[in-house]
Specification:
Elements lengths: L6 E5 L3 H13 L3 E5 L2 H10 L4 E5 L7 H11 L8 E5 L4 H10 L3 E4 L4 H13 L2
Parallel strand pairs: 1-2, 1-3, 3-4, 4-5
Helix pairs in contact: 2-3
């Protein structure tokens, strides 16, 4: 395995979206960890170091916005890490809420090859 691989955490409860992410980030030789809830994602982020966080806004236990606000409150080292909102909500007001909460960028589902490339480029610029 590539020891310099980009470490990615995706907090996403949809199994289809998880499979797409495994496929795409696998092509880019990234190490991808998956969490299916906000609490599980926060726990992983506290015990591992990630170069990129991708968070679904609609999670079963809390919103992605709440998860990121909580994570940033307890893990200040993620303030310089790209945190991407990935959501089905294509709405400027919703986008602004995400960006105000600490997300770096906002993408509408589905995750595509091009959007994954853009996300990885953000993470590489910040390392």
């Amino acid at each position: 395995m590539n020891t310099h691989a980009t470490q990615v955490l995706m907090i996403e409860d949809c199994q289809i979206a998880q499979k797409v992410a495994r496929f795409l980030f696998g092509k880019f030789e990234c190490k991808l960890d998956l969490a299916t809830s906000g609490n599980a994602g926060i726990a992983l982020a506290r015990t591992n170091h990630y170069h990129l966080l991708i968070v679904d806004v609609g999670l079963p236990d809390m919103s992605g916005i709440e998860a990121i606000e909580h994570l940033l409150a307890i893990q200040s080292d993620y303030r310089d890490t790209p945190i991407i909102a990935l959501t089905a909500h294509d709405d400027d007001g919703y986008k602004e809420s995400c960006l105000s909460a600490g997300f770096t960028s906002y993408y509408c589902k589905p995750l595509t090859h091009d959007s994954a490339c853009e996300m990885l480029e953000l993470s590489r610029r910040n390392r």
